[in-house]
Specification:
Elements lengths: L8 H33 L3 H27 L7 H21 L3 H21 L1
Amino acid sequence: MATDATATPTAQRTSSLLRTAIALQTLTIFLQAVSAGLLLTSSYGETLHSIGARVMYAASMLYVLAAVLAWKPGGGSLRPVWHATGFLTLASLQVALGIAHVPSVHLPLGVLMFGLSLVALVRR
């Protein structure tokens, strides 16, 4: 997305916040994959994965907040809000599947979420 020379400082700030929120979400999802590997190989992996799940969920909520802030004041596109809400829905499903110990869906969903988050980051 090209930066508009006529964009207000508020619009630029909220766009930067949105990009940062997506980057944080992408990073936390990647770290969840790392901690999942540790879950299989170390005694502390379960603790790291559990803490990481909370951080990833918080990052998804931050993404929703940043999307709303980017949309509401400037009257921008509602699309980022829908994308962020979709990610929060996927994160909720992911947490529920993890708690229920359904790795046959939990793992592929994590890969999908990482890929979608990476695409959202690159497109932003």
